[in-house]
Design brief:
The chain is mostly helical. About 75% of the residues lie in helices and about 0% in strands. Helix 2 packs parallel to helix 5. The termini are far apart.
């Protein structure tokens, strides 16, 4: 059921993105944020479903597979507000539009997945609806902040360093890095290093403990990206 659902999400987003590129070819100010919205929706919706899997090995395998799939199908989209920060100096309006689209997509993905889960197609779906804050931080707030900051730095630096690689190799390298980071820190913070994805995965946590979660899952990754910008 989960695999079928993931395939449906990717196929639907692919069709919508293809239509957007074709119809808005000469209107970059509309096309770019809409593609970010679609891409971030795909990442958030798929990760929400993936998070329901309890078997660690299967989850890691799917993490790698989905990361490769996202890399192939969402080329040109950062799907991460931290990735849009590099546009801030040269094109602040474009950066703001991209970030707004990404957070909107995160909320839409969570709402869409909650609607799908309410259909009760699989047992984990009903359990997910009843769950409040899953408390992804299984360590102190200070350690969680440092982990998300470090992972963001490693991820963003890697993105910059492999930019000139052949795309077919780059996709697998980035997917492998994401899988390794999830394996290393997934049991401590969830290894999210994406503010929009964090909001989509843990909306109840942000509602209950906004300042703690915004510090760890929004401020830390953004600081990590800011650090990498100074290294270029």
């Amino acid at each position: 059921t989960s695999l079928l659902l993931l395939a449906t999400i990717v196929a639907a987003v692919g069709l919508a993105a293809s239509w957007t590129r074709r119809r808005l070819r000469g209107r970059r100010h509309l096309r770019a944020p809409l593609l970010e919205l679609l891409g971030t929706f795909q990442v958030c919706a798929c990760t929400n479903e993936l998070a329901l899997l309890a078997e660690p090995r299967a989850a890691l395998t799917l993490t790698y597979g989905l990361a490769v799939l996202h890399g192939w199908t969402l080329a040109g989209c950062s799907c991460n507000p931290c990735g849009s920060l590099q546009l801030l100096r040269a094109r602040p309006a474009a950066a703001a539009a991209a970030v707004a689209a990404q957070f909107a997509a995160a909320a839409l993905a969570r709402a869409a997945m909650s609607l799908v889960w309410s259909l009760g197609m699989a047992e984990p779906h009903l359990a997910a609806l009843a769950r409040g804050c899953g408390n992804p931080m299984q360590t102190t707030e200070a350690q969680a902040f440092c982990i998300e900051l470090l992972f963001s730095v490693v991820f963003q630096l890697t993105i910059l360093r492999v930019e000139s690689l052949n795309p077919k190799y780059k996709v697998h390298l980035i997917a492998l890095l994401i899988t390794v980071l999830v394996y290393a820190g997934g049991n401590l913070t969830g290894a999210v290093f994406n503010p929009a994805l964090a909001l989509s995965l843990h909306p109840n946590c942000f509602y209950d403990k906004f300042w703690s979660y915004s510090l760890v899952y929004w401020v830390a990754p953004s600081l990590g990206k800011s650090f990498t910008l100074h290294q270029v």
